[in-house]
Amino acid sequence: GEASTAAATEAQLDEDDDEGEGDEEGDWRDMLWSALHAAAPPSRFACSGFLEQQAGFLAADVTVAGVGRLALPLCKEQAVTLKSVAEQAPHGKGLRTVVDTRIRDAFQVDASQVTIGPGWQPILQTVVSQSAAALDINDTAACIIEARLYKLLLYEEGGHFSAHQDTEKERGMKGTLVVQLPCCGGHTGGSLTVRHKGQHFEHKFAKDSASSLQYAAFFADCEHELSPVRSGMRLVLVYNLVWVGAAAPRLVGKSPAEVQLQRALRAWESNIQEGGSQKRIAFLLGKLCCW
After folding, report:
1. Residue 50 and residue 48: Cα distance in Å, rounded?
2. Are 226 and 122 in contact (CB under 8 A)?
3. Strands, E, within 16-124: which ranges?
4. Among the listed residues 279, 283, 282, 272, the one whose alpha carbon sits nearest the alpha carbon of residue 24
5. Exposed, middle or buried by CB within 10 Å (0-12, 13-18, 19+), for 142?
6. Can you tell me the distance from the alpha carbon of 33 to that of 17, in angstroms, rounded to the nearest whole number?
7. How many CA atoms lie within 13 A of 116 on its CB side?
């Protein structure tokens, strides 16, 4: 679910074939073309859930510089103080970062200004493991998925974030985890919608928002948006999901498209070993990415 769709033009392959590469080379090229355009099975690209309330409340010991310890559920009076040390959250526009409340309306506090008690880490790791399992990711000792705090966000009435895709904020980032903390009175609106390859996933964060801790996780290449908060306020911790370790993460199981691609690559390797062309082949990606 996390890889961009690769695309190439038939004209490029035909042009190379005309250079006299031979029928055998054309065979593996056809295999490669077919593998990259094979219909991929429906993939899990987003998930969500609720944390165990009592343990989560005790463990979510959040302290913000200039504010102090946040009392949960967050009250309006402390939200005013929190807003005074926060800044208007920007968004990416091309290669620039700009502030435009028509696109994104929220207040943010950088992770460097936020401290969370040690009791939160085991609960957070449980959330990460559950998310990895829900997204069909093989989280092993050789490839650990870490959740690294990025921002603390506060949404007031009208707060929203229009449809967008996350950028790679640090090396190895492959996904985003959002943990919503409770606010007095809760909120309405503020639903998260994640889209990927014609599918969509929605989590209605307003449900039990006055008394629960809940989360959502999704791959970074997914388009997503937060609908406007119609009433109340919303407080969230945003984490980068980063792959660390010697091995790369992989989806559990193996799709027919993956098997077909492996066969094509083995045929290509065999062709090179037998003296075939070692020219590089470029495939245009569906979007710019830094993975």
Report:
1. 7
2. no
3. 46-50, 62-64, 68-69, 87-88, 91-93, 96-98, 104-105, 107-110, 114-116
4. 272
5. exposed
6. 13
7. 21
In whole numbers, what is the pLDDT of the chain averaged over residues? 82
User: pLDDT-derived band of residue 56, with 50, 70 and 90 as boundaries?
Assistant: low
User: Hey, which bits of 21-67 come out as E strands?
Assistant: 46-50, 62-64
User: At residue 189, does pLDDT exceed 90?
Assistant: yes
57 vs 24, more confident: 57
- CB distance 203 to 191 below 8 Å: yes
The pLDDT of residue 291 is 33
Q: How much is the pTM?
A: 0.76
CA distances from 63 to 17, 48, 69, 72, 192 (A): 63, 25, 4, 11, 26
Tokens representing 212 are 């629960």
HSE, side-chain direction, 13 A CA sphere, residue 89: 23
